[in-house]
Amino acid sequence: MYPNEDLVYTIGVNDYSKDWLFAHVVRKIDSNMYQGTTWQIKFQLGKVDKSGTYKLRAAIASATLAELQIRVNDPHANRPLFTTGLVGRDNAIARHGIHGLYRLYHVNIPGTRLIEGENTIFLKQPRCTSPFHGFMYDYIRLEGPLEGLCSS
After folding, report:
1. What is the 3-state secondary structure (H, E, C) of the chain?
2. In order of start, what are the domains of the chain with their CATH numbers?
3. pLDDT-derived band of residue 150, with 50, 70 and 90 as boundaries?
4. How confident is the model at residue 43 (pLDDT cuts 50, 70, 90)?
5. Which of 126, 116, 93 is nearest to 45 (CA)?
6. What does UniProt give as the signal peptide span (predicted)?
7. Which residue has the higher pLDDT, 142 or 130?
8. Are 146 and 49 in contact (CB under 8 A)?
9. CA distance 75 to 143
């Protein structure tokens, strides 16, 4: 699906039904060589609560010998904000669609990692020894801080 570059999805511009692929897989670069991929979700924030904690919820419908690394606004950060580590052996991407094991991850994003204006969440799948290594996403949601949203 993305032979030359990774998926870039911009909130408010792209249409998830046309522009988002449910399976985050590797890229074939040679007859028997594959490359990990980093997808981007771009979004605008008008105001950032620097003292608050934002919550990224990533629901995975399937994983096959993959790793999800999440970075925010710095694709080359030495350490990801979050990593699943190596997960999954259900092979739903290749052929066993009903065998996917559901996983739900809650990632805390400090407000200090976000900026007013354009932000980017980087979803990296670096494991790449087979064309079937990857994830099938169910949903991804970013929530703002709860502090200050409710009054008594």
Report:
1. CCCCCCCEEECCCCCHHHHCCCEEECEEEECCEEECEEEEEEEEECCCCCCCEEEEEEEEEEEEEECCEEEECCCCCCCCCEECCCEEECCCCCCCHHHCCCEEEEEEEEHHHCCCEEEEEEEEECCCCCCCCEEEEEEEEEECCCCCCCCC
2. 8-143 (2.60.120.260)
3. very low
4. very high
5. 116
6. none
7. 142
8. no
9. 21
